[in-house]
Amino acid sequence: MITNTFVHLISKNGFQNLIQNTTAQVSIETGLKAVGRPAFTLADTHVDKETRKYSAFKELLYQLLCLGIYLAVIPVTFKKGGFAVFKKLCNKVSQHPEFLKSITKTDKLQGIEKCSIDIFKNEKALVAIHKMSHLSAAKRQDKANDLAQKLLKTIEENTNWELVKKEYGSKEKFMENMLNKERESRFFRQFFIGKGGIEMSSIVGSVVGLTILAPELSHLILHPIMKALNLEASHKANSETKPQKINKQA
Amino acid sequence: MGAGNLNPILKKIAKAAYNLGDHNDPLNAVLAIAIFKGINRPLFTMMDKESDPKTKRYAAFREGLTEVVAASTYIITNKTLVKPISKYLEKKTGGSLGKITHGIEFLGVCLSAVFLIPLACNLLLNPIMKGVSKLTHKKEQETKGLDIKENVVPTLSKPIVQHLPATNVPKGPNSLVVVLQNKYAANNGGNMKVGA
Fold first, then answer.
1. Residues of chain B with C-beta less than 8 angstroms from the C-beta of A32
2. How far is residue B55's CA from residue B46's CA, in Å, rounded to a whole number?
3. Are B65 and A249 in contact (CB under 8 A)?
4. pTM flag (> 0.90)
5. Is the ipTM of this complex over 0.95?
6. Number of alpha helices (DSSP H) and beta strands (DSSP E) in chain A
7. Looking at beta carbons, which residues of chain B come within 8 Å of A88?
8. Are A203 and B29 in contact (CB < 8 Å)?
9. Which of A8, A16, A20 to mutate against chain B (most B CBs within 10 Å)?
10. What's the rounded Cα separation, in Å, for the pair A249 and A62?
């Protein structure tokens, strides 16, 4: 019973879409770090109580600041940048159908021959069509399904329909493919390079944001906050009165 | 944009992007972050000019080690737990293996971040750091031992008086230094050159 509920929950489309998104993965991981590391610092009995409290609070604040800075700067910039870069790369690769076939062909699946994402005005439509591919054909066609309707609206608003007509003959033909084809079909797989490009760019952004930008910025903000909360001063006074072993867990 | 040959780097990027578009394993992002944190944090610490070099080395080594532990934990969790648990759950519930695997991969990363990595750091870092500091302390003592000048008779080329701090030398017309200097000047006919 519990196993079935657990599998049902982790197989849900909403959860599957969330965990395929780099920004969500990194944000959740950083959020969990903000909980786990201070908790372990507090539980460390080798260090005295005041130092533990100070270190745990500092760690919590540091991780939260990193998360805030990351969410404010990185996803928007790198998703947009990644889309622009991979639009050009997809156009280049589309001129080499043999190469595309060779990298996308498997024992069960046929290789794709094109991967252009020119028809999308921005990354929102590309992400929406990828999310759509995770839904079953029945759910995509269901007008009462909120998620499907929301995704359809995003695709409608952020797609260049003139280019779609040139590429697919008509808007209806494109919509028919999108509503009926399987996720493993060539129609959906042609957008994998574009979607992967956005994720790749997000990973680069996460690395830049969380290993260079956020630590530097948060150190600038961290000490004034600690001072404002009077934690820095009380810790200093405490450490001057008795020598302590500070847990320097990063 | 002509249809000429495709750059091999672009080919690799396209292939990697296709795989990421098909399935974005959370291990990719967290591992990349851990590896670059393991490089950047010690680098920044060592670049800090205000800290004491010994403290810097200690902190940088500890930061690097923390990220090594983190990266190893992510990999070990992913490679050892995901496959057997996913297969077991698929057999028991009949769900989609792909979806279950993706879910378990993500939960493995979460478990590592919230519990396994802090636990591994608490258990491993302190003994390793103690071992390393003992080792470096021992080495320092050994190198210091080579520099010991006790029981060594130096060949003196200059009078020892030169090494004495000037403030401790008694002054006055009857002090030992002045008496000896006067005697030396009288014997050499007063031709001594100062600073020669």
1. 110, 113-114
2. 10
3. no
4. no
5. no
6. 14, 0
7. 1
8. yes
9. A20
10. 12
